[in-house]
Amino acid sequence: MILLEGEEIVLEKRRHWLPIAFEATTFLILGLVPPAIFLMKDFLTPEVSGFLLTYKTQLLFFYFAWLELAWAAFFIFWTNYYLDILLVTNKGIIDIEQIGLFNRDVSRLNFENIQDVRVQVEGFLPSLLGFGNLYIQTAGEKREFLIKDTPDPYSVQKLILKQKTLVSR
Amino acid sequence: MIAGGADFFWPAAWIALAAVTFFALLIGALLDYHWRNFEIKKERIIKLRTVYFGVCSILTLAMAFSIYQLFLL
């Protein structure tokens, strides 16, 4: 585990579900397009509808294969989302970014190195649903950390600053 | 000769079935590795595995069944 000895998780945050839901809809559309085409066969040209009816079983086979590939691709995508996580602990912040299945970036920030925490809520939906970007300015080599689409970013900002104050006492 | 199809469909279908199943299992193994190593709440892993492999099994059976249906034609 990435936690140090005596370190406890105070807050665990993932990206807001809305941007992910938009991207996940693509997989749903991919799964629904073939049956939608088949249902519209009466409106298509006689050649196309004839082809669809003649090779119905073969097309059904490829549709299931297509669904299985889309399902596996969706789970890769979902795992990348799910393993992207921001952890606020009693010792600092751990930002884990799962970029791909073989690409993982884990950054640790000690509260002493944090200089500023900035929140940016941009756009209608983020303002309405309360999510936005969280920028953490540090004294380290990597000057600014960006945590995208954080739900309830103001409370996260408040918590980080509170923990920082507790540590510096 | 398969009605409405071609003889080459048989080997192609079995190869496609094997390839898709292999791909789904390979991805499943990789995802399982990630969940076991990087998931904070371990009890969620069993559910994730069940959902992923359950749906994959259903789709693989559906593919095999559609090949069987062709055989009946």
Low-confidence spans of chain A: pLDDT under 50, at least 5 residues?
none
Provide a count of the helices of chain B.
2
- Strand fraction of chain A equals 25-35%
Integer-rounded radius of gyration of chain B = 17 Å
H and E order of chain B: HH
Report the end-to-end length of chain A measured between terminal Cα atoms.
28 Å
Largest β-sheet summary of chain B: none
Strand tally of chain B is: 0
The most extensive interface, with participating residues per chain, is:
A-B, 27 and 31 residues
State the shape of chain A: elongated
Tell me roughly what share of residues is in helical segments of chain A. Answer: 40-55%
Main traits of this protein?
A: 169 residues, alpha+beta, elongated, B: 73 residues, mainly alpha, 2 helices
Entry summary:
The complex is a heterodimer of chains A (169) and B (73). Chain A is of the alpha+beta class and 169 residues long.
Topology of helices and strands:
The complex is a heterodimer of chains A (169) and B (73).
Chain A: E1 9-13, H1 17-39, H2 46-54, H3 56-82, E2 85-89, E3 92-100, E4 103-110, E5 114-120, H4 124-129, E6 131-138, E7 144-151, H5 153-168
Antiparallel strand pairs in A: 1-2, 2-3, 3-4, 5-6, 6-7
Helix pairs in contact in A: 1-3
Chain B: H1 9-38, H2 44-72
Helix pairs in contact in B: 1-2
